[in-house]
Protein 1
Amino acid sequence: MKRKSYSPEFKSQIVLEILKEEKTMSQIASENEIHLNQLHKWKTQFLQEMPQVFRKQNQDMEKIKADYEKQLDSLYAEVGKLTTQLSWLKKKNLASTTTRQERMEMVDWTASELPVSHQTELLGINRSSLYYKPVQPSQEEVAIKHRIDKIYTKFPYFGSRKITQRLNAEGVTINRKKVQRHMREMGIQAVYPGPNLSKRNLQHRVYPYLLRGLSIARPNQVWSIDITYIRLQRSWIYLTAVIDWYSRCILSWELDQTLAMDFVLETVRRAFTVGGEPEIFNSDQGSHFTSSSYINLLKEHPSVQISMDSKGRALDNIQIERFWRSLKYEEVYLKDYETPREARNNINDYMMLYNHERPHQSLNYKTPGSVYFQ
């Protein structure tokens, strides 16, 4: 299949449409017959290069030329070494250290010097998996996932078996296998331990749970991070947030349509900017939080201890789970968001209210923000 070529103008228009958040990325991908991963890559590239537009380009051309010639000499010297490194790399099993989705996102569709067929061979993925026409989720799938979300929020100890029974009792014809698939895609699981509940990166280290029996006595003692499902009228998006356990203050949050790794990393970086550093940073054992990029980001802050929930025990991360429940009952379920932008605006308003206006009985009727920033 011939690889499509897109002009910079076309890419810019698509990215601007994504940033408007008037449509989901799935809708935009489907309408333009472009792979969802490609849209995510364009968006990431656009956001990374945006600051360059505002930087003054006042460089000496002679220096540029000299630097170029120096770099050229260096590049020629590197050719032999890189050839050896490539041979060594091909002997390694990339599939054992990255997920299939991560490797698919590594494909550079604009790299004319390295055809997609060669890239897929090096990455160990099937080229045909890259070529598909994105399809919008059916209204039936959307409705079922929304209902699963409400059941799970009300009964967080329900596993796939009880959720299936509940749906069947409500007149929804669905089997447990399909419910399990939906729950995996939504990133939810029952709060009690059970087999094969955590979809973590098996090759990555899982850190011990450090909060058992710990007395939480001050801000920045413990932070937690998690991801939850947010419903839209015809689709859904994902929300991640970092919470301070002592004050219940939400330090940072972000929405994303694809569960890409970037939105988790950006949320963590923003939390460090806002709140400094916690003594302990807790998460579940999901693939985002056992990934090397997440672990390495936390290791950039040597004083931070990494903690992970016991497998299948969402209650180990109870503070963020309680916040999800409040958010959904007090905001999400009362609204009917049509677009990602509408969801973002309303959730932003709720975050401000939650942090700075709504007092908590457990905080002696102070707000989370006043306790955290006091």
Protein 2
Amino acid sequence: MPRWRRAPRPHRGLRPRVRARGVRRCLCRADDDRLPGDGDQRDRRRVRRRRRRWSRIDRRLDGGKPDRGGSADLGRVLHLRGRDGDHVCRHGRDLALPALGAVRRRGIVRRAFVVLLWLICGLLVAAPWLCARHQLSILTELFIFGLLALSLDLIMGYTGMVSFGHAAYFGLGAYAGALTLLTWQLPIPLALASGAVCAAAIAWPIGYLSTRRTGIYFAMLTLAFAQLLYTIAYKWRSLTGGSDGITGVPKSALWWAGPSLGTPRAYYFLVLVTVAVALLACWALVRSPFGRAVVAIRENERKFAALGRDPARFKLIVFVIAAGFAGLAGALFAPFRGFASPELMFWVLSGQALMMVIVGGIGTLVGPVVGAMVFILVQEILSSYTEHWMIFTGGIFVLMVIFLPGGIVGTARRWLELERPG
């Protein structure tokens, strides 16, 4: 059996001799008889120059920090002694790290991505002055349905559960927000909060029963409960207005004595800020210890349960949080369009939200928002040319799923090498 040990630090600047099969012969302090030119001033200067060169490379790879104590990745050399007694080493610098050009290229790509992100944010802020009224209305609707798709991605991308009834919570939030604005004339932030809380409260018992099942059984249970809620909204005319729904929902003020949100520009900024805050909240959630536990459930639920934790409890919490964000999106939609109807709870909208998540990229957070933008833009463009736009829309998305299996954002990450190595 080979015997491995850590080499001392001074080997780094010495020139290795190339051996067969990619193994290098190291001239380190363990072989004193092989040190080049003991007492030769020129050899010592050559060694110092090489050490300085490797030190500069280390600083580049370590983000500008000098390598003082020896990194486990950069200064590691694993030694063994073969059967013939020769001292052979493998340089961790050569085996564990990518080429310096790849590291530089990845840094350039990341900086370009950050610049592009700031450019997009600037364009979104300036959109009310750059777009016409109809275009601004479409952009506002894009972000509302992007929030709906984002909430569904919390369930699909991080727990592995597929919900066919997620639109029910969107409709519940729309009804709760509409009734809050019409009945009590409260400011719109309270209407948004009522939509999110109402959807989360109704999702709790539904999720308690549904998250105990997995796979197709969970999907069918969510669809059954969604159709039950749709039927209740359709039949309860005294509260929901039946098939006509609730109309005349106003765009209330930001607060009792605050500025009005009746203009498209003001409401666009309200939607933009709400979606940005929701996106940051979801980002913080999935990167917290709780989010890591949820991802562990998605990877292997049995192993997670073997650790003494209850997977159903974690899935229930994520289910309720996702329903709350869907209710928030519905509460934004009701004042925007001025109505709330049972059609907002129908399974067709759940299927559209599912398509938005798949097209944008499952488990990417930003991907569902991008998928919602693509879906609604394609729908708007094709519907202006033909009555059979749904056929062409379906064909386009089938091709996207075939050729972009990771979604738009997932495929872009692989192309731009933005994923973390390892």
Protein 3
Amino acid sequence: MVREQVGGRRVKFDSFQIFRQLNLWFFSGRSKGLVWRNYYVLDTILGFSVICYLISGNKWDGNWLSILTNSQMSLAKLDELRQAAKIEVEMRFRKKRAELNTKVEMRVLLILKAYKQRRATLKERTSQSLLRRMARESKYKERVCTAICQKRVAAEKKRLALLETEKIRVRARVLEVRKVARSISHQREIEMMEMKNKLEDRLQRLFSEFHVG
């Protein structure tokens, strides 16, 4: 029995009562959450409850051996719970690590897949751009060749037209020259005929004068 002066009153502490309350609390379900959090606290509480019982003055009533046995069993049970919790924590840790590794692998695979898709898309765009460029260059070359051919054809037509015009002009000139030449030749023939006639008339007169004389 312990008495203490608190706030002007003497408070009585019954060690056996404390021991009984601690054991009731420990064996009830209210300590279950604490078991999973801190086993060392429970070790301390259980040991303290045994000490309270031993110093309560009831240590010679014959029940302390059973209390000690129950305490040892509780400690063994507590150790089992600790081991089970440790195993569960390790399993949970391994499971979480495996899940995290799986997530990381999936994330890496998704990143690689997205990278490959981007590479494929970029390659396809580059290929399409190259094809369009080649098509444009081919069309440009075709248009240039067509324009050159058209210019050549037009130049050839123009040259042929000029040649034909020149031929016509030369032919007309030749015809004109021939016409002038024929006219001159005809005029000379006429003049020669006149001269011949004049000479014949003159000779005739001379001959006539000679016979008369």
